[in-house]
Backbone:
């Protein structure tokens, strides 16, 4: 009685190893979670302040596109980043997740194709499967620092079924921040082949070493074919708020997404009030957060670089680092690390990268680290993994 | 660049007349909103108490199926209603809306068919369109009090593409509470033709005159093919909480829905804490609420019955009443009522019923009233509508 889409839907590669971690915990082992982008940084205090401020007798539906006041505040925020969208060009969604689903639904019918830059945020595959859309990959290679593939690689995979290009910048899972030239590739391909660009820019503010994340919004000639996806989850360490946005200047896209939004009624009222508060967080908060991630990025990269035979590049953004480990199968290695390895009662969990690819076999030795723990813990966690690799490879030879 | 599914997605019949109401308000007219199921009843105070109680430094992701504690509490609640589901058979969703979408996705591929009893909750059509599923209607007729169609009507429309039957009990929009015999029809058809039953039981507690809403869970032989959809929105006057549930004893269904749930990460954390509070609301709260709706139901029915040439039956549940008005086109009538009619600076908005049907042309003279306002306002609102009908028919002849 199960649908084919239910059968073929991928289990989340980030969450599917959770039972192994749970088992380890049951045995009394402390597990460092570098597998999921759940930061330990405090959510701004304005979250609860605004929830308190907007207390209501009746917890009511809101407008399907989100409350006006929140869309106005978002508009001000985006204007600061030169993304000049008006409140009526902003839709509040249940996290960035729903914004991506709306974007895919607006543009694609079943069996249509969307080009993704692999490795990509793994849940794109889940959304595509739910909506019966085919993800067609162009591959960013670990040996080349996961940079944007050449325009020719895009042209190779375009078919009459291709409707859109979907990618994130800064990139989850690689931490790469694309240059203006690299993004121009996307803009040019989209323009030339009449494709829609779905640009996932949730890590916009997390960049290091003076790098700036350039929004696709800065390319004038593709504004009518652009949907930007955003989220408050990472920016304000508020993953559980589930507040994202769907931004577009294309009125047809907006109207279509609104129909999908109306069917599900609205995002939770109280989280929209909380989001109003988050957008009031002072600049100092963001500065401190970026500073902290910068420190962690440095430590994560430094410690990872010490691992013999690893392929790793210094990421410039987001809070992820992807690397190719000297192991045959990273998923097997992670299971083993959780099940059979410990140092002083501690072990480490990271995400296997194969689920972030569509091409079978790719990413098999790669992993993603989310550097969402404090510097000290992060260092300890990576050192434990380094020892685990050594042990694992001895064992299997 | 728009997908066919985006083009064909229906605009919500409940929300699409909102601009006419907004215009009326701009002209200084007071609009009675009987068009949407947004009650005026207070949400239990435990909502904010629990949100306060569970304050956290970091607003985090939860398990994709919802926090354990909430699923345990839901399990206790369902057990009281003889729906013996365990916490691992309960998934917390973004309102009943998402539970329906998961259910449809678990069972249907594009172009598959789902039988619906029309008139049905209009947003079913939106979800089906988003997932490229065809809704195939069997019709409940106003002249027959919108009772469940005969088993032969179901058998007439079953095809090899039919995968499920989706309906609500008590019914939104008709307020009908189905008898054991009527529900047996559904169970028998499902069993005989290997269909899944998606039973939307969100109005379970809203029944009058000693009527009981029987859960599909009480039919032993279809438990393996049953998905129950539930929501806290109406029960606790907490529509903006966006907390629903997806219940099933079928482990394959659950696992498949969990994959969809993992892709979108989790429902908002804070609303899950609030929901814990709602489930602590005392019995007195529910008793008072039902008593209040009972009074309103009586008034709504009494006032509606006075309208000449109306077809209306006394509803036994939910907080809706559907009726066939003596007008040619109820949508045109409602627009006219909002744009050209007032009594002492007031007018009334109701929902046109055509959007609650799939069969073209049906429901054209019908409307739905949500009796979610206080008795006095309700009476005034219906009287205004009665006068509007008289005026409208004079005008058009």
Residues:
């Amino acid at each position: 009685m199960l649908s084919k889409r239910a059968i073929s839907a991928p289990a989340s590669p980030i969450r599917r190893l959770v039972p192994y971690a749970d088992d380890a915990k049951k045995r009394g082992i402390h597990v460092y979670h570098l597998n999921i982008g759940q930061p330990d940084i405090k959510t701004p205090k304005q979250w609860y302040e605004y929830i308190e401020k907007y207390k209501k007798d009746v917890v009511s539906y809101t407008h399907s596109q989100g409350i006006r006041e929140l869309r106005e505040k978002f508009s001000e925020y985006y204007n600061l980043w030169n993304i000049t969208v008006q409140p009526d060009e902003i839709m509040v969604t249940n996290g960035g997740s729903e914004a991506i689903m709306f974007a895919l639904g607006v543009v694609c019918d079943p069996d249509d194709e969307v080009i993704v830059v692999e490795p990509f945020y793994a849940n794109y595959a889940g959304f595509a499967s739910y909506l019966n859309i085919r993800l067609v990959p162009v591959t960013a290679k670990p040996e080349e620092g996961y940079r944007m593939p050449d325009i020719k690689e895009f042209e190779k995979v375009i078919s009459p079924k291709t409707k859109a290009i979907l990618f994130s910048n800064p990139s989850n899972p690689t931490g790469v921040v694309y240059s203006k030239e690299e993004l121009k590739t996307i803009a040019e391909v989209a323009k030339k082949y009449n494709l829609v660009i779905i640009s996932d820019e949730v890590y916009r503010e997390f960049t290091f070493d003076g790098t700036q994340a350039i929004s696709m919004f800065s390319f004038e000639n593709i504004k009518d074919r652009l949907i930007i996806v955003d989220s408050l989850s990472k920016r304000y360490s508020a993953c559980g708020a589930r507040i994202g946005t769907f931004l577009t200047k294309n009125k047809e896209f907006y109207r279509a997404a609104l129909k999908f939004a109306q069917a599900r009624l609205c995002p939770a009222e109280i989280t929209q009030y909380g989001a109003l508060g988050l957008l009031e967080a002072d600049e100092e908060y963001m500065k401190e957060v970026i500073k902290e991630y910068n420190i962690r990025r440095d430590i994560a990269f430094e410690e990872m670089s010490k691992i013999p035979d690893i392929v790793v590049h210094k990421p410039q953004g987001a809070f992820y680092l992807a690397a190719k480990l000297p192991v045959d199968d990273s998923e097997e290695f992670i299971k083993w690390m959780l099940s059979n390895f410990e140092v002083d009662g501690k072990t480490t969990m990271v995400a296997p990268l194969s689920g972030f690819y569509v091409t079978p076999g790719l990413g098999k030795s790669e992993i993603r680290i989310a550097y969402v723990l404090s510097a000290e813990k992060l260092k300890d966690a990576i050192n434990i993994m380094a020892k685990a690799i050594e042990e694992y490879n001895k064992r299997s030879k």
